[in-house]
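subagent[fold] <- orchestrator: predict structure for attached chain, return tokens only, no commentary.
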Amino acid sequence: MRGEELLGLYEREGALLRGHFLLRSGKHAERYLQSALLLSRPPLAEKAGETLADLIREFGPRTILAPALGGIVIGHETARALGARAIFAERREDRFLLRRGFRLAPGEPVAVVEDVVTTGGSLRSVIDMAERLGAKVVAVAALVDRSEGRARIPVPFRPAATLELAVYDPASCPLCREGIPIDEPGSRGDDA
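subagent[fold] -> orchestrator:
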């Protein structure tokens, strides 16, 4: 699946929201990618996972590691398409940790998979955690990169699609000036 087709799926599934959104960064946006809506349909999640698997297959990951919560479903589907293991990292006090008995072996080739990349901060934290545990992070894949090149991922980064979304400081937000009510989407008010 190409980037345009993936973004079309977001549109058709109502997963590219329009309105006035508060992002985790504190900034505001008029569009928001709600990947959970897209990935809630198993055939679409499977197709998206196959797309990411094709982007990172050449790196030979044996494990797919995803940051919770947004990356769990797409990480699982990518792992299934690769015949790899799927695990996820959980955030505790602004740090990612492996829990639930998940382990990484020294030198184990790992790819990190995410749904949407905004700043790359979560990805860099998960990469750092995996490398501290001795794994070798070989690549990163994402459904959508909306970082506009600012993510600075230290390993090969393969997004299926890129999308520019306008983001505003609250003090200069045109949506606030228009009096449009603000919404805080996501699992923790995350920007996606």
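orchestrator: received. Logging for downstream: The chain has a mean pLDDT of 92. DSSP finds six helices and nine strands in the chain.
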